[in-house]
Amino acid sequence: TNTPTLTLTSGTTIPQLGFGVFLVDPDDTQRVVEDALAVGYRHIDTATGYNNETQVGAALRASGIPREELFITTKLRNDHHKARDVEGAFARSLDMLGLDYLDLYLIHWPMPANDLYVETWRTFETFAADGRAKSIGVSNFLIPHLERLLAETDVVPAVNQVELHPIFQQRELRAFQAQHGIATEAWGPLGQGKYPLFDLAPVQAAAASHGVSPAQVVLRWHLQTGNIVIPKSNSRERMAENFDVFGFELSAEEFAAIDALDENRRVGGNPSEIN
Ligand code: NAD
Description:
The protein is an alpha/beta fold and 275 residues long. The chain has one domain (5-192, 227-232): NADP-dependent oxidoreductase domain (TIM Barrel), CATH 3.20.20.100. 41% of the residues lie in helices and 15% in strands. The protein has ten helices and ten strands. The strands form two sheets. It has an eight-stranded parallel beta sheet with strand order 3-4-5-6-7-8-9-10. Strands 1-2 form a two-stranded antiparallel sheet. Helix 1 packs parallel to helix 2 (53-63) and helix 1 (26-39) packs across helix 9. It starts with a strand and ends in a 16-residue tail after the last helix. The relative contact order is 0.14. It binds nicotinamide-adenine-dinucleotide (NAD). Nicotinamide-adenine-dinucleotide binds at residues 20-22, 45, 108, 139-140, 161, 187-193, 213, 215, 230-233, 238, 241-242.
């Protein structure tokens, strides 16, 4: 069940492959997360906005897996950015998850029109300082938003979790983040099922040559790119398939062919427009 880890600027390590629970119905979440843990995932990505933190917490407890073997991420909801709301939202997340610390706490979206994310981040810094969040980071931040945090606050975000897949590869953002030690975490790593990624010729060709599925090829591309990746599935078979990506490697040619698929095209929301 050991997956490769990356070391974050905070000094803690994160399993490079995790499991996301966006759009997992609260009624299914405990079963889904218990399956994911049984398959071998130790890194779970949720959010207050997913309305399933309580059920994630129930699965963690039911698993009996020691806390230190787990890596748990959740995210602050968009309507709790004001400094006076952040502490309460964070405490409620810990409570719902049944945890006394988080491995990673993220600002879910920058909501730039509100102009509050610098204030929000200063409160996040207190969670890092008192150890209730081993690492703090952001999600859906564009370069100008990161530049403001770097200029106006003390702690460099450990990660930025953003839409990223072969059709939207985020080259400029990744280069910027690499320069500043900010790890890149890919959401929608399989294109959220909104783009027929699995039908593309280079994906199909690599799948055929390695005897694996197109989803495994796409996940392998993420891992070889250096991304942290958190695919989601309700099906235990697919969870296991998505976790079984350490027995083969894309060749330089196969990797380059997938790299060339970039259309710089989102399938999800644009962070500058979400408010
Ligand atoms: P994803 O790219 O992981 O795609 C999930 C879809 O792919 C599912 O509907 C599933 O049916 C399908 N799928 C999964 N494995 C498959 C396989 N092996 N073969 C064929 N189909 C397969 O999309 P996602 O769930 O949106 O993203 C992953 C995680 O990222 C989320 O669960 C969530 O934790 C996180 N996320 C974060 C944000 C954010 O704003 N920070 C936004 C979206 C998602």
